[in-house]
Amino acid sequence: MDFNFTEEQTMIRDSLARLIREQYDWDTRVGVVNSESGWRPEMWAQFAELGLLMAPFSEEDGGLGGGPVDAMVVMEEFGKGLVVEPFVPSVVCAGGFLKHAGTAAQKEEHLQAIMGAASTFAFAYAEPRGRYNLADLETTAKKDGSGYVLNGHKAVVIGAPWADKLIVTARTGGDRRDAGGISVFIVDKAASGVTARDYPTVDGRRASEVYLENVSVGADALIGAEGEALPLIERVVDEAIAATCAEAMGAMGVAHKMTVEYSRQRKQFGTPIGKFQVLQHRMVDMFMEHEQSISMTYMATLKLDEDEVERKKAVSAAKVRIGQSGRFVGQESIQIHGGMGMTDELAVGHYFKRLTMIDSEFGNIDHHMRRYTALSAGEMKAAAE
User: What CA–CA distance (Å, rounded) separates 51 from 74?
Assistant: First the structure.
C-alpha cells in the first residue's frame, strides 16, 4: 500500500491546518459552540472556497477528483480542531448517496449545492429502537401516485438544526428488520409535515429528533432503486465511519500532545510529573494507541473501494481499534491532568467527550466486533464448502 499523500492532498492539509489555527482557535470554538446557532455558516462557506467540500468527488461530478483519502485528510484536521461543522453528514453521507446512486438531475441540483455550500444536508437514518441495525426501520414510505408519503421518527440526526435538506431512509416494503424493501429519499426540511426538536450534544454539536407526518415527496426524491437501498446505505455508512475514524485520529493526537505538555509544566514535590517513570510509560502507551489507530484508519480508508466483505471487515476492525484507543487516550489524558481535566475550561476534557461520542457513532465497539466476527465466520464457511 502507498501511504504517501499527493501534492494536492498535502496542500489541502496545510491550508486547512493554517485556517483552523488562525480562525478556529480554542476560545473561538467555545464561543461558537455556546452561541445560539452552534456553528458558523461563514466558516462553512470558507471551507467551500478552499475546495474542501469538493475534495472527495470526481471531476465528472464537478469535484476535485479526490476520494476517501481526501476526506480522511480533511477529517483528521477537523479532529485536531474539534470542528463542529457538518462535513460527515453533508459531504460524506449525502454526497456519498448522490455520487454512488444519484441521477444526473439529482447530482446537478443537489451535489453541486453541497460542494458550493449553497445547501446543507443531514443524514436521518437512526431510529429509537434501531440499535445500530441499518435495516431496523419503522419509518415508512408509501406510494402515492408517482410520489411517496413518509411517516416516522428519526433519532439523533446530527447537524439537522443546520440543514435545509434531509437524506431519509424508509421502508417501502417488507417487515421491520428485512434487508429488502428499504429506500432512500431526499426530503426538504421545510416540507409540510416535517417537525424537529433541536438540542445540543455532549460533544458540542447539534442534533434533532425529526418527525415525519404524511410528508409528500415526488418520484425525483428517490435515490437509487426502490426497495434495494440497503447495500448502498451500508457503503455510505462505511465511508462515514472511515471519515469519523480519521477525525478521532486527529483528536487523539492533540489529546496526547496536550497531556505531554501538561506533564512538563505540572510539578509535584518540586519535580515535573513528566519525569515520573510510571507516567512516562502511560504516555508512551497513549502514543502507541494513537499510532495503531492511524494504521487501522489508513487501511480502512484504502479498502473502501474493495469488495463488500473486505470493505466491511476493514471498517469494523478500524472502528473497534478507534473505540478502544480513543477510550484509552481520553481516559489517560484526563487521569494525568487530574481534576483540571474534568473542567469545561480546559480543552482536553472536550477532546475526551468527542472521542467518547465517536465510539457510539455508526456502531460501538461491541457492534463492530460482532460484525467482524460474523463476516470472518462467513468467509471460513465459504472456504470450507
Answer: 11
Q: Which three cell numbers stand for residue 238?
A: 462505511
Q: Could you give the residue ranges of the DSSP H alpha helices within 139-229?
A: none
What average pLDDT does this structure show over 296-324? 96
pLDDT in tens, 187-199: 999 999 999 999 9
Contacts of 204 (CB under 8 A, 6+ apart): 29, 33, 38, 82, 84, 350, 353, 354
- Output b/e per residue, 275-309; b: 16+ Cβ within 10 A: eeeebeebbeebbebbeebbebbbbbbbbbeeeee
One-letter amino acid of 281: H
Tell me the one-letter amino acid at 75: M
User: Whole domain around residue 164: which residue ranges?
Assistant: 122-228
Please identify which residue in the block is written with the cell numbers 438544526. Answer: 161
Q: Which CATH number goes with the domain that contains 20?
A: 1.10.540.10
Residue 293: phi, psi to the nearest 5?
A: -65, -40
Residues 98 and 165 in one domain: no
Phi and psi at 321, nearest 5°, equal -65, -45
Nearest alpha carbon to residue 120 among 198, 205, 35, 189: 189
* Residue type at position 312: K
Residue 372 is placed in which grid cell?
Answer: 467482524
